[in-house]
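Data card: per-record layout.
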Amino acid sequence: MMMPEPQEQPAKEASSGAPAASPVDTLLRLCLDADRRLLVFGLVVFGMAAFCTVLAATDSRVLDGANVWFKPIKFQLSLGIFLLTLAAIAAAASGAFIRSPIGRITVWTAIATSGFEIVWITYRAATAERSHYADNSSFETLMYSLMGVAAVVLAMTPVALAIAAFRNTSQDAIPRIVSLGMLLGSLVAFFGGAFVGGMMSEQPSHYPIDAEDRSSRLPFIGWSLTRDDLRIAHFVGLHALQGLIAVGLLLVRVPYNKAAYIQYFAATVWLALIVALVVLAGFGRSPMAWLPT
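The structure for this 293-residue chain is written out next.
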């Protein structure tokens, strides 16, 4: 994808004599204009997380060393954040795009794929069975493969919406640096989600060296404190979407020429961090090793 040169000053921002919007004003505007379909479904997913938290407090069953409900809670929280972020990105795209067939397909694809993922993970938790790395039957293998396909498709949806947001040059468009953060964040997150997720799916577990795990873990989150764990790189990669949008919000009052360079630098550093975490896991090490075990 051809990325814009940082020195390209958008005409609206260059010629307008009006003061630049503040980060809070821009964020509030994105929240108020958020796509209602994605917003409502994101809140439903958060509601599921609250319900599963109650179940975790009353259900003592354990799977792979953790309460059976911890995994769906983590996925529900992560997907809830993802859906709300997606709703905000949709708000930055033009209304014409969101109403177009491509826009509608993108939104409903995000809802359908995330719904499939979360329902299956929650169902498997209820039956105290694995949703990932499950291969006891051909059906389990099929569902695991379908989850992988759904995850890749889901990771592509913010890219489509972010491209539309970046191309939105209407008078009511959000600051260009924020839409640039959306675009870069979606691309880095796709790498962290699809590439690192694909690496994990090709192995018997999220540990690239040995599937057996007897190490100390971070409470609730479950990341290993002492050994290789690709989930850390996966998490950092996925949340580049929120992180780089936040960088864009912080730069709204910085001249675009300078802000764009900072945004590109931040995206490069984030991408390098993902690669470093993958390499570290490949050597059997954990970035969490400094924590007390």
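Known properties of this structure: The longest strand covers residues 62-63. The longest helix spans residues 138-167.

See the next section for split statistics.
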